[in-house]
Design goal:
The complex is a heterodimer. Chain A has four domains: 127 residues, no CATH class; 54 residues; 43 residues, no CATH class; 192 residues, Rossmann fold (3-Layer(aba) Sandwich). Chain A is built from 18 helices and eleven strands. In chain A, helix 2 runs antiparallel to helix 3, helix 9 runs parallel beside helix 11 and helix 11 crosses helix 13. The longest helix of chain A has 30 residues. By secondary structure, chain B is an alpha/beta fold. Chain B folds into three domains: 151 residues, 3-Layer(aba) Sandwich (Rossmann fold); 32 residues, no CATH class; 91 residues. The chains are: A alpha/beta, B alpha/beta. At the A-B interface, helix 2, helix 3, strand 3, helix 10 and helix 14 of A face helix 2, helix 5, helix 6, helix 9 and strand 9 of B.
């Protein structure tokens, strides 16, 4: 493999340095690149080819330079540096030692070939999952159920052809209607599956914000000089036709911060599905989850398949179903992430039941800051679904005055109304009077005497 | 100095030092590779750690022009690449009409180089450049996705196509430095085309040597105490930790007040040079300043 195809169709020819040695280094670099790719660092063949050329300029016997070169060529973002370092240590130091121990000091082609034959870990994992019997059977069962349902619908439709009085769509519709109103808490396994399907079908749009970019338009407020000159050339120097540009609108970014602590455990899986559909349905969505600490899960949720994505999130998150410290989580968000994700008039969606074991004063300060740095702060609370909900927990009481919209999130209907709200968000800032809100909250949390 | 004269990483490090920029070896490696491989260098890091400065220093080292493009939301071709000089075009058409020159000629002429206003990106790849300039694309995160996508093409081929004129490509590939403050994620496609380096806050010793290199007139004792104090400050839980730029700023404020060492009163009065958020000032302003000062005063 002396010649490797390059992007522009030319061939990148390996320098005939020390062919055997060079090839081995290239081989090892490729293998290292593959490992990085496996753990989620964006390393493609093009980057590796580039690196191979780059290494000509450095003294690769200097370990420090070798490391620096690999790092600045292969590592694309700062967050992944610890991961890179770990993999670097593992690959270039630890593994060598392990292998030497295992095989004695006999590097050779035989061992290399054997390694090439082995499946990469992800494939092995996929294979294992595929062979996993119960999972397979479960899938089969859903599959059978689905085909059964399809068959029934077909029959209904056939009947309808024969007899106009029956209304299959009506019955199907009303079944969905019931499901939409049912609290997630009391879902059966089947209903969860059905709900997931319904969620996947939801379409999302988010209010638009004016950008500083302009686009050509029939009527607008800015003259499009470039076009004007072009158009009017035919009339000599007289400007007879004017063309315009107007401000371009773009959807606002959405930031979701979801509580996955113990008290939310009945909802969190379904809510994650919901976050997955919304992040795939909208352009700019950042997602975070928190219990006692905040974790960014945007990248995990980018995976197309929802089950893969949720599994990835579960793997990343350390504090699944633990305690809640909303204040601390928001503090961390404000310090580390707010500047990075709240630009451009973002809408923030906090999903939590407000059960907080942290310090209320911290929560208050952080809510204040969060509200000030976003265009709209929406709080979804699954408990709000119950008709006699009162904001009695200290966390919820503290946070409420700083929230622009307080909505339930206990059934599919509530998620649909959230969708409507998101679509209706406009440029105008909501009125934010903390004092008035406090009063209203105090009023609301008073126990009510039924007559 | 020519690019060819920088043959080793040490050369780069030394040349940067001569320009009063203290770079550790890993940063020098990244710069060296960016020069040799003629690839853009993407620099990220907290504000005020010297990202922009690198481009300025490089321009000084290579004795070439620094072309700076400050990004902002909505930056587009007419502000970043080129624009036609419409007024001149219109006037010219009138003049030609008065002189009775035929139309086909006019059309060719008014879309020629004479009527074009070159913006930074076009200046950077102008074939007339005899030396490769340093192109600084500053705070790319402030621009929008559309502009980033446009850059992709420019940064891989160093050529720009202007419909009326044709393709203009650089004779001398410019040295490209891109900085980002991460208010928005830079797209993977752009990252892939660049070498990447994260500039961290400096260590205590490094910051001390930076201060001495940039401000030789500062008393050593004050420099040591200031660095120690700032170092302490960075480990506190702040909304915005002070960068090197702020350290230097603070020292000049202290010097303006004729301070030769850190004393609590003036320190409190000048905290605004270091901390830019009221919350942070409040947080540190109480007991913490006193504690940190005691620590810092103990250094020398």
């Amino acid at each position: 493999m002396n010649a490797l195809p390059q992007e522009n169709g030319n061939y990148f020819v390996l320098r005939p340095l020390d062919i055997e040695r060079g090839e081995r280094l290239l081989y090892r670099l490729t293998e290292f690149g593959r490992i990085l790719w496996e753990v989620g660092i964006d390393v493609g063949p093009r980057k590796l080819l580039d690196l191979a050329e780059t290494l000509d300029y450095v003294d690769i016997t200097n370990k420090e330079d070798f490391y620096d070169t690999l790092k600045c060529s292969l590592l694309p973002r700062h967050e992944q540096e610890p991961l890179f370092n770990q993999m670097y240590l593992y690959y270039w130091y630890m593994r060598d030692r392990q292998e030497k121990k295992k095989t004695g000091d006999t590097p050779g082609t035989a061992r290399r070939d054997e390694r090439q034959m082995r499946l990469p870990p992800s494939e092995l994992k996929r294979l294992a999952e595929h062979l996993n019997a119960p999972a397979e059977r479960k899938d089969l069962r859903t599959e059978m159920r689905e085909s059964e349902r399809r068959r029934r619908v077909d029959e209904y439709l056939k009947e309808e052809d024969d007899d106009d009085t029956s209304n299959p769509q009506g019955t199907a519709y009303s079944a969905i209607e019931v499901l939409r109103k049912k609290d997630f808490e009391s879902f059966t396994w089947d209903e969860v599956q059905e709900a997931k399907k319904l969620m996947a079908e939801m379409r999302w749009n988010l209010g638009q914000r004016p950008t500083r970019r302009k686009r050509p338009a029939r009527r607008g407020s800015y003259p499009d000089m470039r076009r004007i000159v072009r158009r009017n050339l035919k009339y000599g120097a007289e400007l007879l036709e004017l063309t315009w540009r107007e401000i371009k609108y773009k959807p606002r970014p959405l930031v979701i911060i979801c509580d996955i602590s113990g008290s939310m455990s009945l909802y969190s899986r379904l809510l994650l599905h919901f976050i997955h559909t919304i992040s795939n349905g909208l352009m700019n969505v950042e997602a975070f989850v928190f219990g006692t600490r905040l974790t960014r899960v945007t990248r995990q949720l980018k995976r197309r398949d929802v089950d893969d994505a949720v599994r990835d999130v579960a793997k990343t998150v350390q504090d699944w179903s633990g305690g809640t410290r909303i204040g601390d989580a928001l503090h961390f968000f404000n310090q580390k992430w707010a500047r990075r994700v709240l630009g451009r008039g973002a809408v923030v969606l906090v999903i939590s039941d407000g059960w907080d074991r942290g310090d209320a004063s911290v929560l208050e300060v952080e809510m204040d800051r969060l509200q000030h740095s976003c265009h709209r702060l929406i709080w979804l609370n699954p408990l709000l679904g119950s008709p006699d909900y009162r904001p009695l927990t200290i966390g919820m009481k503290t946070a409420l005055p700083y929230i622009d919209d307080f909505l339930p999130a206990h059934n599919l209907d509530s998620l649909i109304s959230l969708g409507n709200l998101l679509g209706a968000i406009d440029d105008s800032r909501p009125v934010r009077s903390v004092a008035a809100r406090r009063k209203a909250v105090a009023e609301w949390s008073k126990p009510r005497v039924s007559v | 100095m020519d690019q060819e004269q920088l043959t080793t990483i040490e050369d780069v490090q030394r040349a940067m030092f001569a320009q009063h920029y203290i770079a550790d070896r890993s940063l020098a490696t990244a710069v060296f590779l960016a020069l040799k491989r003629r690839k853009p260098l993407l620099l990220e890091g907290e504000p005020g750690v010297g990202k922009t400065e690198i481009a300025k220093v490089l321009a000084a080292i290579l004795d070439t022009r620094l072309i700076r493009l400050q990004c902002y939301e909505g930056i587009d071709v007419s502000t970043a690449v080129y624009e036609w000089n419409y007024t001149r075009q219109m006037l010219h058409i009138r003049l030609m009409e008065a002189a009775g020159i035929n139309r086909q000629e006019e059309l060719k002429e008014i879309f020629g180089p004479d009527f074009m206003i070159q913006r930074p990106l076009l200046q950077a790849i102008d074939p007339a450049n005899t030396r490769a300039p340093v192109l600084l694309i500053d705070e790319l995160d402030r621009s929008d996705e559309e502009f980033e996508a446009y850059l992709l093409e420019l940064l891989s081929d160093f050529q720009i196509t202007i419909p009326e004129i044709g393709t203009i490509s650089a004779k001398e590939t410019p040295v490209v430095i891109i900085t980002s403050n991460r208010t928005r994620e830079i797209h993977d496609a752009l990252r892939r085309r660049c070498l990447y380096f994260w500039i961290d806050f400096p260590t205590l010793e490094k910051e001390y040597s930076i201060v001495l290199a940039r401000m030789p007139e500062v008393p050593e004792r004050l420099a040591k105490q200031v660095c120690a104090f700032v170092h302490e400050l960075r480990s506190a839980d702040l909304f915005k930790a002070p960068g090197i730029a702020e350290t230097l700023d603070w020292i000049s404020s202290l010097l303006a007040l004729d301070q030769l060492e850190l004393v609590e009163g003036p320190v409190r009065d000048t905290l605004g040079a270091l901390l830019k958020y009221q919350d942070d000032v409040l947080k540190v302003g109480g007991n913490d300043v006193h504690k940190m000062l005691k620590k810092a005063q103990g250094v020398s």
